[in-house]
Amino acid sequence: SFDRPMQLYAFLESVEKNVKSIDSIHVIYRVSSKEYEKGYQITKGRFSSVKFLKQETENDFKQLLLQATFLDSTTDYFLFGVDDIIVTDPVDISESIELLEKEKAYGFFLRLGKNITSCYTIDQKFDLPDLKEVHNGVLRWQFNKAKGDWSLAASTDMTIYRKKDFKDLFCNLDYNNPNVFEGLWIACSG
Known about the structure:
- The chain is α/β, with parallel strands linked by helices and 190 residues long.
- 34% of the residues lie in helices and 17% in strands.
- The strands form five sheets. It has a three-stranded antiparallel beta sheet with strand order 4-11-6. Strands 1-5 form a two-stranded parallel ribbon. A two-stranded parallel sheet has the order 2-3.
- The longest helix has 14 residues, at 5-18.
């Protein structure tokens, strides 16, 4: 989160209300002024169970991401979220992980649904991929036969992954901010 404490507050509030079975939450944030720092302090005060990691320089993002993802968390899975998401529906992370393993899926994409038929970042509409319902409301598809957001195997937008599948990659990529990280991850995911 960069200079968006209000958006982060809303995101964390929506997670608190709608998401069950989260082991821990880490927030990497940075600020450009004391005013934004005050906003993050308010957010920290409200969400005291969240571990906040402040980015002090532009070069410590990678270290903080690795710490939050692999060192400070004891689970075998991770889920990235961004501060401009609002979770609107109930989600049980443990049930999602069970289905991820049962289906031997690459990831469990919480943000994607049948309503996602355009990609705002490239201003393009697309058809839904060939979707197969594998459980009540849970869909399966193939990335290489999909377009837009459905074709992206790597995402920081509310997707559950296995740590063991990505630790080496995340350690070896050269990145210093979230956008470069996600771009390199997408490029490596094919």
